[in-house]
Write a structure and sequence with these properties.
The structure holds two protein chains of two kinds. Chain A is mainly beta. Chain A has helices spanning 6-9, 12-17, and strands at 19-23, 29-30, 46-50, 55-63, 76-83, 88-93, 104-115, 120-129. The chains are: A mainly beta, B alpha/beta.
Chain lengths: 130, 387
């Protein structure tokens, strides 16, 4: 299904820069950004937080049967990363070193996939084993 | 609140039903349930229909009204319920609440999914919507991918092996042999599972439930009039539904589903029964790892101990706790919206003593466990014989 460009554009800051939010009360950091702290509820303010991109692999899988948009990309490896600031975040692992739970990673900026007849290229943070 | 009983059940054959459209499937199961309850159509006041993605799979929305018409129910209240793979269980709970509250007397609950009119990639995309589309599916993380991430961490933390996971598939395919409605009637081995095509490492094709067509339906009535329709009313003894974050990575733990733990505690407390009293359970095995985590989170096993017990046969039909006697989602098939209702049909047949070659001897209390997405919706029901 082809979609409008705005769908990606509106979350570009988070997708390109790994930017989330932090609760000013309990200091919990969140990715992706959200309006309300999951712990404190509505009685606190959330401020923008840029993550370092450093973390370790919490879990990973290699996907062989992709959703429609990723037909050309498969197979590819995705992981859940424990960022050093606390939250878990999902992302692609760029090909290279063999993944292992606990391995250190850093965020990089890469092409993700090309969508639709107009050839809209989606970019995204990915993770690289260091 | 009034006591509520299941007085009728119906199923279609699950599988590649190329000859049947979504209307045909829904009508087949619905009519079977009405027939089983020996109910007059004019007595039925409301219908709840569980379906995940009829729009994506068949271009048809507004499904509950369609279903009501297909089974000849005129001018009734009909509501479609969508909670991903827990659509059926959620619809059942709403039907239960409608009768328990006194708002309605006779209610039909249906569940259906027609999945085989689209390509596998299209179906994978539709099912991916059960997770957080914006961060999971948008990065190509499929539904099997989410469970693979859980499986990998479970293996890391508890030493669970791929062979142990495979034993879930072997057991459930074995149980399906005795279920004429099941999609698969093929005995498989650990080796078959291990050698099947990789879908999302470490989950292989035979670790995954199928993309297929099928429908299920039940009829509910207040207990005080249930005996008018059946000699063996099955009481809905406990009902609970619990939610969590849609996005897997937003949760504290990926090796279990917290909502299952909470829902099980609530449903068992309402029913006034303990885990040791449960004679059989239909557990949401959309993937083999899901059944392992399911029986752990339901509290039947300590965390990390279920995979070994399953591999040793403790959850077979003649074991300590029979799990997925129907064949489960793995062996029976997983037409998403139908599954939660099909689980109820299986437990009702077992408690009636009508399960034939897969009958659990002397079954009196059963449990169903229906999960939506990677655990953002969990529905647990407890049933017991009431005659
Ligand atoms: Zn906070």
């Amino acid at each position: 299904m082809e979609r409008g460009v705005a769908k990606t554009w509106r979350s570009a800051n988070a997708r390109y820069n790994l930017t989330g939010v932090q609760c000013t009360n309990c200091k919990t950091a969140y990715f992706p950004p959200r309006m309300v702290c999951a712990k404190c509820g509505r009685d606190t303010k959330m401020v923008e937080k840029k993550f370092s991109g450093r973390g370790v692999i919490y879990s990973y899988t290699r996907i062989f049967v992709p959703p429609h948009d990723f037909t050309e990309e498969a197979p590819y490896t995705v992981a859940i990363i424990r960022l050093e600031e606390g939250p878990l975040v999902e992302g692609h692992l760029v090909d290279g070193k063999k993944p292992e739970i606990g391995a250190s990673v850093r965020a990089v900026f890469r092409r993700m996939y090309t969508e639709g007849s107009e050839g809209l290229i989606h970019y995204h943070f990915k993770f690289e084993i260091v | 609140m009034r006591e509520v009983a299941v007085i009728g059940v119906g199923l279609t054959k699950f599988g590649d039903r190329w000859e049947a459209g979504i209307k045909d499937l829904a009508a087949e199961a619905g009519l079977a349930a009405l027939e089983d309850a020996k109910i007059i159509s004019s007595e039925i006041e409301a219908l709840y229909g569980g379906i995940m993605s009829s729009g994506r799979f068949t271009d048809q929305e507004h499904f509950a009204a369609l279903l009501a018409d297909q089974i000849g129910l005129k001018h009734i209240s009909a509501v479609r319920v969508e909670n991903a793979c827990a659509s059926g269980g959620s619809a059942f709970r709403l039907g239960y609440m409608a009768v328990a509250s006194g708002m309605h007397d006779i209610v039909v609950v249906g569940g259906v999914e027609k999945m085989t009119d689209v390509t596998v990639n299209e179906a994978t995309t539709a099912l991916g919507g059960a997770g957080d589309q914006e961060w999971e599916l948008s990065q190509g993380i499929t539904f099997p991918g989410l469970y693979a991430l859980m499986a990998r961490r479970h293996m890391h933390d508890y030493g669970t092996t791929q062979e142990q996971l495979a034993s879930v598939a072997v057991k459930n395919h074995g149980n399906a042999l005795a279920n004429k409605y099941a999609q698969f009637h093929r005995k498989i081995t650990i080796d078959d599972v291990m050698k099947s095509k990789m879908i999302a490492d470490p989950l292989k094709l035979l670790d995954c439930s199928s993309i297929c067509d099928g429908a299920a339906a039940v009829v509910l009535a207040p207990m005080e009039i249930a005996k008018k329709y059946t000699d063996t009313p099955i009481k809905v003894a406990g009902s609970a539904q619990v939610g969590d974050t849609l996005r897997l990575a937003s949760r504290d733990s990926l090796t279990g589903i917290a909502a299952t733990r909470i829902a099980a505690d609530k449903a068992l407390a309402q029913a006034g029964v303990e885990r040791k009293d449960i004679d059989l359970a239909e557990v949401h095995d959309c993937f083999t790892i899901a059944e392992v985590m399911g029986v752990e989170d339901l509290g039947f096993y300590n965390k990390g101990e279920a995979a070994k017990a399953i591999a040793e046969g403790e959850t077979m039909i003649d074991g300590k706790l029979p799990v997925n006697t129907s064949g489960g989602l793995k062996g029976c098939g997983h037409p998403v919206g139908a599954t939660g209702v099909k689980q109820v049909v299986e437990v009702v047949e077992q408690l009636r003593g009508d399960a034939g070659a897969r009958q659990v001897n002397g079954a009196e209390i059963g449990l169903t466990h229906n999960v939506g997405g990677s655990g953002a919706t969990v529905v647990v029901h407890v049933f017991r014989r009431a005659d």
